[in-house]
Amino acid sequence: MAAASPLLLEAGIVFAIIAVGGAVATRIDQSVIPAYIVAGILLGPNAPEIAGYSLAVVETADFIDLLAEFGIVFLLFFIGLEFNLDRLVASKDRIARAGLLDLAINFTVGFGLGLVFGFSLFEALFLAGIVYISSSAVITKSLIDLGWIADPESEAILGVLVFEDVVIAVYLAALSAVALSAGGIESIARSLGIAFGFLLALVALAAYGTDFLERLFAVRSDEVFLLRIVGLVVLVGGVALAAGVSEAVAAFFLGAAFGGTEHAGRIERVITSERDIYAAVFFLAIGLGTDPRLFPAVAVPLAALVVVSTVSKLLSGYYGGRYYGLSERRSIRASLALVARGEFSLVIAALAVSAGGSTALSETIPAIAVGYVLAMSVLGTVLMRYSGAIERRVLPTDA
């Protein structure tokens, strides 16, 4: 009998950690998302030592990164299933108003704080993106877990997230071209053209391709159906990344295309378990990539960033909800939901490392980003979970 594969053993440890973290969170009636992140920090490559012994039991690996990518695309694919494209188009004016307010307040706050911290204009642009973009993965997972997905505020929340994802796709394409010296204006224009072309193709599929998808996936076997869905979702996400487009945006619009077909219910039935597994690995991977030893050096700017940007998101989320036509109570819910930051902030931090050229880009901004994502993902999920108590405190009478 062949010796046990070290990779298989490591995979077993990863899923055991996830299972224990989820069980602990459920036992204390908390969201599983922060539990997975903290488990990754405590038991990952940067784990603390106790009495000279390291708690590290798992290292980052390519298979973890791959499953984490699956988690992002399947989370957004499922949200797309629930989000009617006709309703999105019908709400485009309200989405634009809420999204532009969110962009104006939070991008400006991040950029301004970067300048206050002593960063250059170019370095401050990285911090602006990290602060601006809410976490589609964290927020959508919480919407599903808390059962908010069918509530009126979910449409406003998802509308802002889609607006943010489109903005960040343009932002990343432009910033990458400049940061990596990819050829100046012509390169930026080419990257943006490819990104927009790909997104327009997905929007067209969602708007006009439902009949094609109905026929393509009309199979009796659940096994064949599952393989076709997984294959298409992963392929589209991969092509999106290769084209310089957010895989999350691509997965969302692909889900919206399937949401208009008769296959939507069947997709939820056969793939929900896979979605939850991949999403758990994604949140664990955030913790594995976080080195808590970097936090003390950036404690002051990190604390300022958490406080100021939480207030700015709450304000933009609340007034964005009001622009969207929500009641005061549901606007508060929307504002609480948008606080969480996550995957895109870490992508921007990784780009800063790749750009290099200064200590701020290679060390300071990435250190701030990982601490910021941990704090905001935990804070965001906690605020959503206790939204009822917060609403009653802020609005003691019905509103």
Low-pLDDT residue intervals, each spanning 5 or more residues: none
Numbering strands along the chain, what is their spatial order in the largest sheet?
A: 1-2
The rounded distance between the terminal residues' Cα atoms is 67 Å
In the CATH scheme, the class would be Mainly Alpha
- Alpha carbon gyration radius: 21 Å
Shape assignment: globular
Task: Provide the CATH architecture.
Answer: Up-down Bundle
Portion of residues in helices? over 70%
CATH fold annotation: Na+/H+ antiporter like fold
Q: What count of structural domains?
A: 1
Q: Write the element-wise H/E pattern from the N-terminal end onward.
A: HHEEHHHHHHHHHHHHHHHH
Report the total helices.
18
Could you report the average pLDDT, rounded to the nearest whole number?
83
Written account of the structure:
By secondary structure, the protein is mainly alpha-helical. It has one domain (6-394): Na+/H+ antiporter like fold (Up-down Bundle). 78% of the residues lie in helices and 1% in strands. The protein has helices at residues 6-27, 32-43, 62-82, 85-90, 92-116, 121-132, 136-146, 152-179, 184-208, 210-216, 222-242, 247-259, 264-288, 299-323, 328-337, 343-355, 359-385, 387-394, and strands at 49-50, 53-54. A two-stranded antiparallel ribbon has the order 1-2. Helix 2 runs parallel beside helix 13 (264-288), helix 5 (92-116) packs across helix 6 (121-132) and helix 7 runs parallel beside helix 17.
Keywords for this entry:
about 0% strand; two-stranded antiparallel ribbon; globular; Na+/H+ antiporter like fold; about 400 residues; 18 helices; mainly alpha
